[in-house]
Amino acid sequence: MWLRPRLRRKQYYTPEGFLSNPHLKWGLVTVVFVISSDHMNVESNKTILWNIISYVLVFACAAFLLFGMLVLSAKIPKTSLKRHMLESAEMLCERETYFRVIPGVDSSTLHRTADAVLISIAWQFDEKNPVESILWSSLYSKGESAERNKNLIDSIKYGYKPNIQYLRYWHGSTLVVRLFHLIGNLRQMYIFGAVLMAVLFSILFMLLWKEGYKEGALALSAGAIMTAVWFTPFCLEYCWMIHLMLVSSIILVIMMINGKEKLIPYLFLLTGVIANYLDFLTTETLTFTVPVLFVLLIQHRKEGMLTKADLYKVFRMGLLWLFGYAGMWMLKWALAGAFLHIPVMDYVADHISERIGSKADLELSLPTFLYAAIRNNVKSLLPLDYGSAGIVAFLSLLVLLFYWGFVHRRKGWDRWYVSICLIVAMIPYIRYLVLHNHSAFHYAFTYRAQLASVMAVFLVLLELTDNRREWT
Known about the structure:
Blueprint: H1 15-20, H2 22-36, H3 45-74, H4 78-92, E1 98-100, E2 109-111, H5 112-123, H6 130-136, E3 138-139, H7 148-158, E4 164-165, H8 173-180, H9 186-210, H10 214-226, H11 236-257, H12 264-278, H13 286-303, H14 308-340, H15 344-356, H16 366-378, H17 387-407, H18 415-434, H19 436-441, H20 443-446, H21 451-464
Antiparallel strand pairs: 1-2, 3-4
């Protein structure tokens, strides 16, 4: 069963072939084996087996619980949602579907087309066929994508049936959308999201400050300011990963304070699962990079000096997060193939190649696209996005920081701590390069993944200077 059959790779394009792919099987086995070992040390076979079983069970329970909740939400009658969803659709038509809150500032862009799509998908769930409808994730659309808000009104008022499927994502956030529209509309949802984000940020900030990790609280604040997170509650597409990042970080800090480090691998696994369930491919890496920086900070304070073993811990947590994230995605495609009886992988492969490829109609070379993916995201950071004045302010800040770092430099800094933080800081840029097509065009929201990069640089600067002790 595990041997590779002597057939062409096209056999793997069907749902059954995808699941029987030996590269997939052995790859998953390798990943699970690595993440099940305790900090890469040799353990007994019994312990390794238990870790593998526990990770798989946690993944399976979380995935099917989320799937079941989505199915139950699809059973909500449309009559209970119609009034508030119509209000939401009318609100979306008040402005253009893609606009800048501050003229000329890309980082203030709100992408209301994505919100119209999300609400359209949530509206089209069929209470008589809940499983099939959530797997199809269909919506009604006529004309250009800029007309999605008007299409949403038409589908609600006149009962138009869906004609476009969007099955490549879970769209798990439709669960929240449907539940909230039982009691309110999108405008109220934006306000609730803003209040929730402020509360979560305040809890995390005060928790870090109270426990003596002031540099962590300030690094988080610096990252939030430079990525203008205050715009994210007003677009559903943007907010899910910020909320999840904050919740995961709060739980992680509490775990580490209370000596519950053994539970942290499961937290990263669950965070990866939930990130894929909610995300539209926006700033998913934040749900790993920011929490893992807090792990490094707290561990650094406890141990004094980090070692190579701590790099292995970060690698293990990253694999667990990736196992949850990628596993959840593959589960969606497998379920779609099983229930809908369609060649899912043909559709998925096309969209994957589009995200990592170049736009043929623009006739841009790969180096040009890679450059654009990095440049567009970096220039969206505050204050770089505010024209010449912003560039001057940013360069002045860099000069000031380098001067401060040179004057207050110290010996005996933790090289492993600095190195691992800088590795984490590079993760968003690796993501931009891999998904260069997507990152080059959607930089107005993907740039916020650099929140972790700003945090990491801030923490490194404090580690390299004598003034770091003033924050502890």
